[in-house]
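dude i think i finally got it to work??
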Amino acid sequence: MFDLAYLEDFQPGDGLPPLVKEPVSKLQLVKYAGASGDYNLIHTDVETARSVGLEHVIAHGMLSMGFLGQYAAAVAGPQAVRRLRVRFSAMVHLGDVLTCKGEVKQVQPGEGGTGLLLLSLRAENQQGETVTKGEAAVALPMRSR
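look at this
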């Protein structure tokens, strides 16, 4: 998403370009269940989901967290992500198209030529409803060393 980024390239309040994910599919949920070890059938079996009052299967909450992790990593690479915290605020359904959005909260110059970029993150569905929100800290090199 970004070319080589430096801490000085960012200011508090800067928005980040959005990351739009493909629609959530049943195959994706089955694969995610296997990758995560979360085999709760409300994520893959319609009858089980309906038996607990859901209209259809719902995505794993950690799937949308993973999308936000991917988004934070796009700033400077996965090795640069120092912290990721999220809260789940709404269910993600089959067919939902999630868009990851972010804003720079704080820029913290550090020692040794590296600083931290504190980001406010959210994943929204196609109706603009925030389904997952959180924050990340990403380490970036500084030009002025």
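The chain has a mean pLDDT of 94.
im so relieved honestly
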